[in-house]
């Protein structure tokens, strides 16, 4: 669907890229926890006879006690590594990392690649016309079974998303905020994620230093994680 593809390209470029990510867990006005990461991403679009793919290398940067830890995502698989381990171990994308953010959230998701989408309605979002899309995951290993996604009808900017479980129970809500120029496009530099039950508990995903950078293919291998000690 053209709507979802255009919104994807606002959230993230199609070319290999890299960015800094800071997660800030909040309770009311009080900061509970903060972690920073260096993330390298690469998308591979589906071609004749082959599925698409997405790969990401996530390096823990701050606090200093977390340095040396890393995550490696290769489409349907996610590995975790830290220096005290002999080798990387597989982990769940749904597992909480910081606050309302799961392991799978740290990696930029290409919704068109991971979900089947349909236009459900056109409605108002803060005084602007929005498309409301329903997204169903293509494969069981995708982090969220279903997403309700609002996209600005004029500029295709993501506005809001609701992440649902298999029984349609709301897991959390996210708002895309702080649009600023990055790589020639106005992109969201903050995703505000609200707990579905405790609205005073929320997590801010803050993006910075977004740049095109094709890190070597070798970086997206489990063996490479052993070099990040």
Write the layout of secondary structure elements.
Layout lengths: L1 H10 L5 E11 L2 E15 L8 E10 L7 E5 L2 E5 L7 E2 L5 E3 L2 E2 H4 L4 H4 E11 L2 E10 L8 E7 L5 E7 L5 E13 L2 E11 L5 E12 L9 H4 L4
Antiparallel strand pairs: 1-2, 1-15, 2-3, 3-4, 4-5, 5-6, 7-8, 9-10, 10-11, 11-12, 12-13, 13-14, 14-15
What does this molecule look like?
This protein is mainly beta and 229 residues long. The protein has a single domain, classed as Clam (outer membrane lipoprotein receptor (LolB), chain A), CATH 2.50.20.10. It contains 4 helices and 15 strands. The protein has a 13-stranded antiparallel sheet with strand order 6-5-4-3-2-1-15-14-13-12-11-10-9. A two-stranded antiparallel sheet has the order 7-8. Strand 9 and strand 10 form a beta hairpin. The longest helix is centred in the N-terminal third of the chain and has 10 residues. InterPro entries: TP_0789-like, UCP028205. Keywords: Lipoprotein. It comes from Aquipseudomonas alcaligenes. Pfam families: LolA_like. This is Outer membrane lipoprotein-sorting protein.
